[in-house]
Design a protein that fits this description.
Elements: E1 3-7, H1 9-17, H2 24-33, E2 37-41, H3 43-53, H4 62-75, E3 77-78, H5 94-102, E4 108-111, E5 124-125, H6 127-136
Parallel strand pairs: 1-2, 1-4, 2-3, 4-5
Helix pairs in contact: 1-2, 2-6
Length: 137
């Protein structure tokens, strides 16, 4: 079964920073790279990925950033979501929430390290919770 996921930027950063192959964020990104998870994104999400992943403080190589973004854009699904009118604690998270809302007819999840920034919904999960969902299939 194929799952759709909006991957929050903090999950990508955590995966790229981790030196542990068994870390939940690393496994989620790995399963996305393997094609088991179809990434969902919008123009705004890609812009955030580009800006955050290129911050000097993380030290990610340009090749690594370009490769990751290329995979997301090539194998993912670009969504132009409807405005939800929702107010979130951190409004920079709104594009991620609106994209996952747009895809709720499918098996779509928002995978984040900041659960508290979003409404409590069963489709908003941590990387560990998403792995549990993937492993139950």
């Amino acid at each position: 079964m194929i799952y759709y996921a909006v991957i929050d930027t903090n999950v990508l950063v955590s995966a790229l920073l981790s030196s542990h192959a068994d870390a939940a964020t690393v496994q989620v990104v790995g399963r996305m790279l393997d094609g088991e998870v179809i990434p969902l994104f919008s123009e705004e999400i890609i812009k955030e990925y580009e800006e955050v992943l290129r911050r000097k403080k993380f030290g990610f190589s340009e090749d690594k950033v370009v490769t990751l973004l290329s995979v997301i854009e090539k194998y993912g699904e670009k969504i132009k979501p409807e405005s939800s009118g929702k107010i979130l604690p951190d409004m920079k998270d709104l594009p991620f929430y609106e994209v996952v809302l747009d895809k709720q007819d499918d098996e779509a999840y928002l995978v984040t390290g900041n659960i508290r920034h979003f409404p409590k919904k069963p489709f908003i999960v941590t990387a560990k919770e998403f792995l549990d969902i993937l492993n139950r299939k």
